[in-house]
């Protein structure tokens, strides 16, 4: 079992920045893949960015150049630096963990990001 706890969500004005964090605990296997997903009201949950334990990253086209994903393997923490935020970035942001050795996906409960003037 893996537990994921997100933090850092808040309300921010367009053009502002936020940094999300996700703390993982439990049976952490490596290699693994951790990522951020988001779900806006009335929309499906979708990938924002993901990073492997080896450091390979993947971003949704809509956030490339504005968001940066990173991780601290020693602390089992995942981060998402979000800059130049837009109203369309408003969503609940979820942390996800997956490892081949475990075979299961784990999700956090989410943190709300609201971008509004």
Strand content: over 45%
Helical segment count: 0
Query: What distance lies between the first and last C-alpha atoms, to the nearest angstrom?
Result: 40 Å
Shape: globular
Report on this structure.
With 117 residues, this protein is an all-beta fold. Helix content is 0%, strand content 53%. The chain contains no helices and eleven strands. The strands form two sheets. Strands 2, 4, 5, 6, 9, 10 and 11 form a seven-stranded mixed beta sheet that branches. Strands 1-3-8-7 form a four-stranded antiparallel beta sheet, with no helix packed on it. A hairpin with a 4-residue loop joins strand 5 (46-52) and strand 6 (57-59). The N and C termini lie far apart (40 Å).
Fill in the keyword field for this structure.
single chain, 117 residues, mainly beta, seven-stranded mixed sheet, 11 strands, 0% helix, globular
Describe what is shown at a glance.
0% of the residues lie in helices and 53% in strands. By secondary structure, the chain is mainly beta.
């Amino acid at each position: 079992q893996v537990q994921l706890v997100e933090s850092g969500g808040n309300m921010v004005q367009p053009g502002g920045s936020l940094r999300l964090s996700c703390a993982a605990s439990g049976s952490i296997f490596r290699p693994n893949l951790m990522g951020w997903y988001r779900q806006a009201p009335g929309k499906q949950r979708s990938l924002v960015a993901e990073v492997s334990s080896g450091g390979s990253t993947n971003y949704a086209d809509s956030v490339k150049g504005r968001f940066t994903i990173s991780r601290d393997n020693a602390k089992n923490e995942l981060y998402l630096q979000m800059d130049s935020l837009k109203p369309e970035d408003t969503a609940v942001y979820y942390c996800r963990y997956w490892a081949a050795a475990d075979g299961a996906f784990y999700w956090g409960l989410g943190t709300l990001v609201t971008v509004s003037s």
